[in-house]
Structures are given as C-alpha cells and as structure tokens.
Amino acid sequence: MTSLSDDLQNLTITEDLQLHEPSSKTKHTISPRNPEHNPLYILKNVRKTQNRPAFVAGPMVRYSKLPFRELVRNYNTDIVYTPMILAREFVRNDIARSSDFTTNDKDRCVIVQVGSNNVEDLLKFVEMIHPYVDGIGLNCGCPIKEQVREGIGAALMSEPDLVASMVKAVKEKYGNTVCIETKIRIHPNLDETIAFVKKVEASGVDFITVHGRTKNTRSSQPANWDAIKLIKETVSVPVVANGDCFSLEDAYSIAEHTGVDGVMSARGILSNPALFAGYKKTPWAAVEFFWDLATSYGLPFRIIQHHLSEMLDKVIPRKSLKEMNETTCLIDMIDWFDTHFILKRRGDKGFATATEPSWKINREEAAHI
Ligand SMILES: Cc1cc2nc3c(=O)[nH]c(=O)nc-3n(C[C@H](O)[C@H](O)[C@H](O)COP(=O)(O)O)c2cc1C
C-alpha cells in the first residue's frame, strides 16, 4: 500500500488539456490539475493543518452549478460537488455535455458526480471528463424513482458487486491519477451496509461519503450519525459524513460524534452558502456575490430565483420574499432588487462585505410593504 504523498507524486498531470465542442468547433483549454486539489489530499491535510474536518458542499441537481460552486468556496468550503450527471446521456449527447457541465480554472477542488449503472458508460464518462475535475463521485444514494428504476443511484445499494466492478474498472485504468468516491446511503440492516462498504473499499475506492439515511428515510427524520461512526470505524479509507449539517457547529458536532474526515452539507449550504465560514444565515455580501456570478456566468432565471429564494429565506421579510418569488423574468427581478436594495457592485477589489441587506427604505418599513 502506498502513502498519500507517494500517491500524489505519482499523479500524472496532463499539459494543455482541451475540451472540444463538436457543434460549435470551439476549443477550450484549462490548466493542469494541482495535486493539492486532490480530494484525498484535502481530506487528510485539512485535519492535520487546521485541526478540523474538511468542509464539503454536496451534489444538488439544478443547484450545484459553477456560480454556486465559486460562491461556497469563498466561504471556506474545501470540496465542492457538481449535480449528478447521467453518464449515459453525457457520453452520447453533445447538448447534454455542454448543458450539464461547465468549469473554469477557479473551479477547484471539484468532484463531478455521476449516475451510472454499468462499467462501460462509466469508463467512457471518466475518459471524457477526468482532465477537468479533481475527482469522480459515483451516486449510490439517489432515491428518485425514475433513476432507481434504471438501476441508478440508490438502486446500486443492492448491487455491491456491480459497484465494486465499476470502481475497480476505473482504478485499474487510471490508478491514482483519478480519485473515485462513492456516495452511499445506509441499509436498514447495518450489517448489510458494513458488508457493502468493505466490498467497495476492497475494489479500490478512494473515499466514501455516507448519507446517514436509508433510501426510504425522509429528510425530516434525523440522519443516523451512529451508523456513519460505525462505517468510519470499519474502513480505512477517508469517510465524509452527510446529513443534517445546517451550521458550522453542526459540522464540528458531526465530526466529533463520528470521527469522520469530512462533513458534507446540502440543504444547509443551499440556504446559507457561508455556513462553513461560521455565518448563521446568508450574509448580504454573499447575495451580492451570487448576483455577480450568476449573471456573469449565465445561470437560467428560474435557477437564480430559486437560489435567491433559499438564501434570503431567513434574511428578508416573508412578504418581500414572496414578491421576489413572483417576478417572472430576470429583468423584473433585477428591477425588484434595484427598487428595494442598494447593491454594491464588486468591481476589481473583491465582493462587498456587508452582512445585512442594504435596504433603500428602512427594515421596519420593509416589513410592512
Ligand atoms: C435540491 C437537492 C438536490 C439534490 N441532488 C442530489 C444529487 O444530484 N446527487 C446526490 O447524491 N444527492 C443529491 N441530493 C441529496 C444531498 O446531496 C444530500 O445527500 C441530502 O440532502 C442530505 O444532506 P443534508 O441533510 O445536508 O441536506 C440533493 C438534495 C437536494 C436538497
């Protein structure tokens, strides 16, 4: 078994990586990956150097796009996931490729999450995407019926041999040049979960994320941190705990309870992207920064609106939130913000630092709009 530093020295960094878009004939280039952005390096090093777990923003369909990833990194998030991308569509469909994944040089450390039910699609997916990401995450937890019916996501929890063969195929082809993770749920029977993680570990997986719920547990029910602890005690690869991290304090409590190497937040970081920097609710500066990122990178209007709705839920009065949610296009929403708030543009000197909204009228008045 090689040590982490050996592993990192053995990483091959490809020069001048290129992504071709056959439809537009546009050629993009992106710089080589930096070994310090390898998720394994982060999971081990953050604990050593900062005496804390690594902070991870989980995959969220529709939401974890490039602007949101950049936003959360500005607030102390170490590892950020893309939404789940279906391998089958990605490898066959040029349009799916450009709509599902965009990246840039600042997008590090990024793990692309993949939904797949077979080795062949997975290998093709990894071949296409690995130069542009720091890790590949195999989704073994998505409970959505359409995916499960196709044998994707949580369906894989009943297919330990298949998961092991998928991980093994990637490791046999790429060795330590590709970091592969599996994001799993727990089984009601913990012995079955333990057998699952042992098999996946033996197949060469680099680390495991455990969402402490079964595929039928609702998100309103608490995540099972004891089960995560048991898994952490069972395997020797790093483990990331997921479920119910809504504040920095939660992140520390989860890490202390389970002994994990990293803590992942999804709903918590969606509503407060500055969670891992210790903010109790979204600071206004994050709202302004998100506006800049979303409009300059070009997120669709409805997604911007959903993000802002989540981020502002605890920040502005309910009535104002409702009004913002009722705007029907980007221009209307910009007008609405311009009417109610003084937005400080970032310019070249970084983003605004305000923690409270800068209302154009005072807050008490605003509460009665
Ligand atoms: C809007 C939304 C989209 C999600 N999309 C994905 C996804 O693409 N892949 C995945 O593995 N989990 C997905 N999840 C599940 C989260 O990653 C996470 O496992 C779950 O929400 C529990 O974490 P939390 O308690 O921090 O929210 C999604 C969750 C939400 C709320």
Structure summarized in a few sentences:
By secondary structure, the chain is α/β, with parallel strands linked by helices. The protein is built from 17 helices and 10 strands.
Task: Give a description of the structure.
There is one protein chain. The chain is an alpha/beta fold and 369 residues long. 43% of the residues lie in helices and 14% in strands. The chain has two domains: 4-277, Alpha-Beta Barrel (TIM Barrel); 284-367, no CATH class. The protein is built from 17 helices and ten strands. The protein has an eight-stranded parallel barrel, surrounded by seven helices. A two-stranded antiparallel sheet has the order 1-2. Strand 7, helix 9 (190-202) and strand 8 form a beta-alpha-beta unit. Residues 1-27 have low confidence and may be disordered. The structure holds flavin mononucleotide. Flavin mononucleotide binds next to strand 4 and helix 12. Residues 58-61, 63, 83-84, 113, 139, 141-142, 183, 211, 242-245, 265-268 line the site of flavin mononucleotide.
- What is the CATH third-level topology name of the largest domain? TIM Barrel
Strand line-up across the major sheet: 3-4-5-6-7-8-9-10
Mean of residue pLDDT? 88
How many beta strands in the DSSP annotation? 10
- Please trace the helix and strand order, writing H or E for each element: HEEHEHEHHEHEHHEHEHEHEHHHHHH
The number of helices is 17
State which percent range the strand residues make up. Answer: 5-15%
Structural class: alpha/beta
Level-1 CATH class name of the largest domain: Alpha Beta
Supply Rg.
21 Å
Helix content: 40-55%
Main beta-sheet strand count, sense and barrel state:
8 strands, parallel, barrel
Question: What ligand molecules are bound, each kind once?
Answer: flavin mononucleotide
CATH architecture of the largest domain: Alpha-Beta Barrel
Keywords: Flavoprotein, FMN, mRNA processing, NAD, NADP, Nucleotide-binding, Oxidoreductase, tRNA processing
GO molecular function: flavin adenine dinucleotide binding; mRNA dihydrouridine synthase activity; tRNA-dihydrouridine20a synthase activity; tRNA-dihydrouridine20b synthase activity
Family: Belongs to the dus family. Belongs to the Dus family. Dus4 subfamily.
Pfam families: Dus
